[in-house]
Automatic annotation (TrEMBL):
PANTHER family to which the protein is assigned, alphabetical: NADH DEHYDROGENASE [UBIQUINONE] FLAVOPROTEIN 1, MITOCHONDRIAL, NADH-UBIQUINONE OXIDOREDUCTASE FLAVOPROTEIN 1 NDUFV1
GO terms of biological process kind: cellular respiration
Record-linked Pfam families: Complex1_51K, Fer4_15, NADH_4Fe-4S
SMART domains the UniProt entry points to: NADH_4Fe-4S (SM00928)
Gene Ontology molecular function, alphabetical: 4 iron, 4 sulfur cluster binding; metal ion binding; NADH dehydrogenase activity
Domain of life: Bacteria
UniProt keyword Iron-sulfur present: yes
Name of the featured protein: NADH:ubiquinone oxidoreductase subunit F (NADH-binding)
Protein species of origin: Nonomuraea polychroma
Annotated stretches, region: Disordered: 523-543
Family annotation (InterPro entries): ComplexI_51kDa_subunit, Nuo51_FMN-bd, Nuo51_FMN-bd_sf, Nuop51_4Fe4S-bd, Nuop51_4Fe4S-bd_sf
Family to which the UniProt record says this protein belongs: Belongs to the complex I 51 kDa subunit family.
Parts forming coiled coils: none
Length: 543
């Protein structure tokens, strides 16, 4: 989820991924070739050897060894088969901007790495999937056109076809299975069963799937060679890394820094006040206290020692001006709304966790109730989203104990919820409501059986209804169709029943729609409506 304005770029140490960006807003192909030269092809064994020598890991969050991905795809292809190289530019994290920066300002470095891998694997094509908005998508389409024009004029650019696919923007769009589904023209949500892209990905072919920074790092590794590449950074995790620093206490930026840099130095560069804590690793990450920040080191190993996960390099300091518990509740509500809604933990568990968090902000409920609700969703989801949300919530409960005590004793900590945690600015998707013709309803109770989470029966067996979110529209229609008395119909909650739009909610960032999982200002689930077109927005192909 990329902001409309690409953030400024800062660096600590030598420029690699950001080389040239202090002189050019965007590096076109001639400028890129002046800096990095023409990419020489490498064999598969060479790339695997290079990646193993520097222990190159994926930079999308999971830190999976890149050499193992290459080998897995090669083994799946066998002799004479086809494969695809897929670039994950679908930055689902609202607090991350490094994909936007690379695709908008330095797209050719990303494409160089992907083309290197494609040539080594003998891939059919390179596919770049982005949910980065018009600017990023236009930049990569222009980069593809620049390469085509260079070949037409006698240049030596690779002729591996490159296809750009714009997909629907949402938090889970960058999950591997969801991305493959979207590229294949299906609904862009994680599959219910784990499916390895290396075995079956784009068009059912073995697919090498990594994010933009990973491919950019591969291009640099091939350019420098392992020995020079490892001249900076730590011995176990050589090279540089991209960090996105944002939040209410920082001058937002994407920072390139060698691994081994102190987290406190990065925050000082951004003139950031820590306040009650710093979120590390994004909205599936964990909070570090002000004390832990002072000794934390920017590396996978360093963050693990501090009690966090580096993930995709997201750093969000809170500062002192906002209610930290309220900010955590905002994020929990957002994550509940952004789920795929295809399993119990997402449909029921995450909304309950979000409501309990918001109750806690208002001085009601209890920490124990939230922990019980979290235990219900952990390790039971169809994808990692419930587990990641649970990790974030539990970390907030541990980190903001004093804040929670104030809310329970006084109803507030005295600070407003300023909404400093980055959130996408979107119009909410419509919600729906079930309406009943009471002259027909005789209390069969079938609607409550079909939609137990949204329909409750009173002591006499008659129903009362909660608002239906969009991802439950199919099930709501089924309940209407199966009502034995034909007493139900489905209407939109966005109007008054006569086509007039409902008034927009106002108030603090924590004001919730009590019968759903959403709060004012957050986005509703962005799943394709029943009967609508697939979630692929645009396609462009170049050879």
């Amino acid at each position: 989820m990329i902001p409309a304005r690409v953030p400024r770029v800062l660096r600590m140490g030598p420029a690699r991924l950001t080389a040239g960006l202090d002189h050019c807003r965007r590096l076109d192909l001639p400028a890129h070739r002046t800096l990095h030269g023409v990419t020489e092809p490498r064999t598969l064994d060479e790339l695997i050897s290079y990646a193993n020598e520097v222990d190159m890991r994926g930079r999308g969050g999971a830190a999976f060894p890149f050499a193992r991905k290459l080998r897995a795809v090669a083994d799946a292809v066998g002799s004479g088969g086809e494969c695809v190289v897929l670039i994950n530019g679908a930055e689902g994290e609202p607090a991350s901007s490094k994909d936007a920066m690379l695709l908008t300002r330095n797209p050719h470095l990303v494409l160089d790495g992907a083309v290197l891998a494609a040539e080594a694997l003998g891939a059919r094509e390179v596919v770049l999937a982005t949910a980065g908005g018009e600017v990023a998508e236009a930049s990569v389409n222009a980069a593809v056109a620049e390469r085509r024009a260079a070949n037409i004029s006698g240049g030596a650019e690779s002729r591996v076809p490159i296809r750009v696919v714009g997909i629907q923007e949402r938090f889970i769009s960058g999950e591997g299975g969801a991305l493959v589904n979207a590229v294949n023209g299906e609904l862009g949500i994680p599959p219910g069963r784990k499916r390895r892209a290396a075995i079956s990905g784009v068009d059912g072919l073995p697919t090498l799937l990594s994010n933009t920074e990973t491919y950019a790092q591969l291009a640099l590794l091939a350019e420098y060679g392992p020995e020079k590449y490892a001249e900076i950074g730590t011995s176990k995790e050589p090279g540089t890394i991209l960090l996105t620093v944002s939040g209410g206490a920082a001058e937002g930026a994407v920072i390139e820094t060698p691994t081994g840099t102190m987290l406190a130095d990065v925050l000082d560069l951004c003139e950031a006040d820590i306040g009650d804590g710093v979120l590390i690793g994004g909205y599936h990450g964990a909070w570090l206290s002000a004390e832990a920040v002072q000794t934390a080191v920017i590396s996978r190993e360093g963050m693990k020692a501090a009690g966090a996960t580096l993930g995709a390099g997201i750093i969000v300091p809170l500062g002192d001006s906002t209610c930290s518990l309220g900010e955590a509740a905002r994020v929990a509500s957002y994550l509940a709304a952004e789920s795929a809604g295809q399993c119990g933990p997402c449909r029921l568990g995450l909304p309950d966790v979000a409501r309990l968090m918001c109750d806690l902000v208002e001085g009601n409920g209890s920490v124990d109730a939230i922990r019980r609700a979290v235990r219900v969703v952990e390790r039971r989801g169809a994808c990692f989203h419930p587990d990641g949300t649970a990790k974030f919530v539990l970390s907030a409960l541990d980190s903001f104990e004093s804040e929670i005590a104030l809310h329970l004793e006084q109803g507030t900590c005295g600070r407003p919820v300023r909404g400093v945690m980055p959130m996408p600015e979107r119009e909410p998707e419509p919600e729906y409501r079930l309406e009943v013709d009471w002259s027909r309803c005789v209390g069969h109770g079938l609607c409550a059986h079909l939609l137990p989470e949204f329909v409750k029966l009173d002591d006499y067996g008659f129903p009362s209804f909660r608002t239906i979110p969009q991802f439950m529209l199919r099930e709501a229609r089924r309940a209407v169709e199966m009502c034995p008395a034909l007493a139900l119909r489905l209407g939109s909650s966005s109007g008054d029943g006569h086509g007039a739009p409902a008034p927009k909610p106002n108030g603090s960032p924590l004001r919730l729609v009590k019968d759903g999982m959403m709060k004012a200002g957050a986005s509703a689930p962005r799943l394709t409506r029943v009967g609508a077109a697939p979630s692929v927005r645009a396609r462009g192909t170049a050879g």
